[in-house]
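Subject: Sanity check before I submit

Could someone independently write out the structure tokens for this chain? I want to compare against mine line by line before I put it in a report. The sequence has 146 residues.
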Amino acid sequence: LRHLPTIFIAEINGRAAGSGNEFVVQCDMSFAGPDALISAPEVTSGGLAGNGGAQYVVRALGMQKAAEYLLTGSPVTGAQADQLGWVTRAFDSQAKLRNHVDDLATRMALLDPGALNITKVAIRAWGPSEDQIQQDLASTLRFLPT
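---
Independent answer below. Compare away.
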């Protein structure tokens, strides 16, 4: 997702755990509704929030806060994720969530695609490196049966 010229917006109002969380943290923006529940539970099954998932969570929450959730697999609500910085913003109703995302997408559709893409590239410079993602993949694959 980080290399595609498309702007990705996650609209969460259910569970986003494991791979779902890895998708959310790699989106350009993420918004949570009242029924959102987000977690990185991989450690509970002997794994790693791979594909850059751990690094994205650390960058969003900070090392100490991320450690609590990555090392325990504990879930957070949308409102908690907002307070922690795990999502861009949380809403207390599905309607407010949907309206905000629709308004945002409508506004961005009016903007120059080239300007959006170069801005996305600048923002994404803060993500994990390709080497880190490959190390995550190698670490995860060690746990799979051969």
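---
OP: Matches mine. For the report I'm noting this point. The beta strands are 9-12, 15-17, 29-32, 37-39, 76-77, 89-90.
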